[in-house]
Design goal:
- It is a single chain.
- The chain is mainly α.
- It has one domain.
- The chain is built from eleven helices and no strands.
Length: about 240
């Protein structure tokens, strides 16, 4: 009873935080791409107006593209799952012995032997839903748990815009913050790198990596992308004249 309660609690926690990976995914991409746009324009020595135009255009257009891509990807995964699932149910009718042998091989892989193996196979194959579910997980490595295309697309878009807006904050509120031309890009760099570090640290909750290393790696990726964009803009700045 206690074991079942533990399993249920684990499923509840997994469902509660199912949105976090999409938020991290969208947030990192939003911050990195917008930061790269800002750095490229700064490298080209263009005006704040150009930074805001290109920055916000990237923020919403790329955010929309990312969210649609996420939605279509999750939708395709669900469609693939349902298609293969129907085929497996059909196989239970057409060649039950072959499918039963596959369950036997799967359970042998889990260490079942002798009477325990026979009993396990009998229990599993007595319920078609359980039978097919086990085949989907072990033969095709497919599951539809926590896959929600609409939620995934929405969370990706929201996180992309929210975190991606950070590189534009200093430019948008430059007058209110009383920032000079020499300090606005420095403030942008510091705030964006810090934001990327925090998102990377959150990402570590879904892996075995140390939170500091994960945060540092994410911040470094953003910094490298911005540096590349800055020097590309710097070397091509003559084109704007």
């Amino acid at each position: 009873m206690q074991d079942q309660e533990g399993v249920n609690q684990a499923h509840d926690i997994k469902a509660t935080y199912a949105w976090v990976p999409d938020f991290v995914y969208g947030g990192i991409d939003g911050a990195v791409t917008t930061f790269a746009v800002v750095a490229g324009v700064e490298g080209a020595s263009l005006s704040v107006t150009v930074i805001l135009i290109l920055g916000f255009a990237n923020l919403f257009a790329d955010g929309f593209s990312m969210s649609v891509g996420k939605y279509l990807s999750d939708k395709a995964n669900l469609e693939q799952y349902e298609k293969i699932r129907k085929i497996e149910f059909k196989h239970l009718i057409e060649k039950p012995e072959h499918e039963r042998d596959e369950i036997r091989e799967i359970m042998e892989g889990y260490g079942f032997k002798g009477k325990d193996l026979t009993r396990a196979v009998e229990i599993i194959t007595s319920n078609d839903e359980v039978w097919v579910d086990l085949m989907m997980r072990n033969e095709f490595n497919l599951t539809k748990e926590n896959i929600n295309p609409l939620r995934g697309g929405f969370i990706t878009f929201v996180s992309f815009v929210l975190v991606g807006f950070i590189p534009l904050v200093a430019y948008t509120f430059r007058a209110i913050l009383n920032l000079s031309e020499n300090t606005v890009f420095i403030v942008t760099c510091c705030s964006t790198i810090l934001a990327l570090f925090m998102v990377g640290a959150i990402k570590s909750r879904f892996s075995m990596r140390n939170w500091f290393i994960s945060g540092l790696e994410t911040a470094l990726i953003g910094g490298v992308a911005a540096t590349i964009a800055y020097f590309v803009g710097y070397f091509l700045r003559g084109l704007s004249s």
